[in-house]
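INFO  loader      accepted 1 record
INFO  loader      residues=213
INFO  predictor   begin
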Amino acid sequence: MNIIKPCFIIETEFDGEDILRHIEKAGRICYKSEDKVTEASAYGFVKRIIKNGHEAVIEHFSVTVRVICDRGVTHEIVRHRLASYSQESTRYCNYSKDRFTNQLTFIEPCFWNRDTDSGKRKYEIWKNAMESSEKKYMELLELGASPQEARSILPNSLKTELLMTMNLREWRHFFKLRVAPASHPQMREIAIPMLAKFKELIPVIFDDIQNGD
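INFO  predictor   done
INFO  writer      dumping tokens
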């Protein structure tokens, strides 16, 4: 059994300044103000359209991210409908094979403080349950069950990989919901650092979104 922390990889290669210029080009068609484009005009233009709620313009650029997290979190992510998804399939992935190192991988829960007796006991109960799940999954495969049959006993904590593509407007919607204090702790665990990375790579677009902490 393998236990890991969640993470993400931004798969799309881009230059943040180029994105702003691309969006400005699209947006200025609305006003026929292409003659006002300068070397430095994109930043201010994009900032104004977001402030004015004209977010349809930022749909002209999309970003793809690979998210490595537990399946429970992906059940929430795929509720965002204006997106494209590809996900690791437990129907076809046989985790008893060498390419999966003959074991299941689980995402470590982030909400139990193992420095306390209570948190330590909760974690041990979880870990024991994961070990049992892996053991019974492998036993089913050994008895001739197919991966799609054996997966019926796999828990939400199973690690999965989800490739998700959204336009920038939908990414804004995603972050507004998923970094909020009311969001699930494991969702925030991945969404907050992802938002920070988007802010680092793309100027203006996400500056107004705060995580609420």
